[in-house]
């Protein structure tokens, strides 16, 4: 099963979906593969990802002593129904945060 994901400029890219991840609604098929069409553009999905990142980072950079380095890790999944979503693992959204302070307090 394949998913065609459109860009706002009309171009598309195709993603191979894992077995059993299709919606069951097939809009087109041609040749060997079946193709579904994303309900959302890539840019709209990335705007949601950006919103997640901003919601994660804003309170962390507002700390009394902000970290020198923030690392956020999360997986993305492409689905026909929802476009780009934060992938889940074990039933929960997977987001790992790593904060690092390399300077001593007081700048020394």
Describe what this molecule looks like in 3D.
The chain has 108 residues and is of the alpha+beta class. Helix content is 19%, strand content 39%. The protein has a four-stranded mixed sheet, with no helix packed on it. A hairpin with a 3-residue loop joins strand 6 (76-79) and strand 7. The longest helix is centred in the middle third of the chain and has 20 residues, at 42-61. The relative contact order is 0.19. Mean pLDDT is 75; it is low at 24-29.
Residue windows where pLDDT falls under 50 for at least 5 positions: 24-29
SSE sequence, one letter per element? EEEEHEEEEEE
Give average pLDDT, whole number. Answer: 75
List the total number of helices. 1
What is the terminal-to-terminal distance?
57 Å
Structural category is: alpha+beta
- The whole-angstrom Rg is 19 Å
Biggest β-sheet description: 4 strands, mixed
Q: Largest sheet, order of strands side by side?
A: 2-1-4-3
Estimate the global geometry from the Cα principal axes.
Answer: elongated
Helix content: 10-25%
């Amino acid at each position: 099963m394949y998913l065609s994901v459109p860009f706002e400029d009309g171009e598309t890219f195709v993603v191979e979906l894992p077995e059993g991840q299709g919606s069951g609604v097939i809009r087109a098929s041609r040749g060997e593969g079946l193709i579904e069409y994303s309900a959302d553009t890539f840019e709209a999905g990335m705007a949601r990802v950006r919103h997640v990142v901003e919601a994660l980072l804003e309170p962390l950079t507002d700390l009394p002593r902000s970290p020198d380095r923030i690392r956020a890790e999360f997986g993305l999944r492409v689905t026909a129904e929802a476009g780009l979503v934060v992938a889940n693992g074990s039933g929960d959204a997977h987001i790992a945060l790593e904060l690092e302070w390399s300077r001593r307090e007081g700048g020394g």
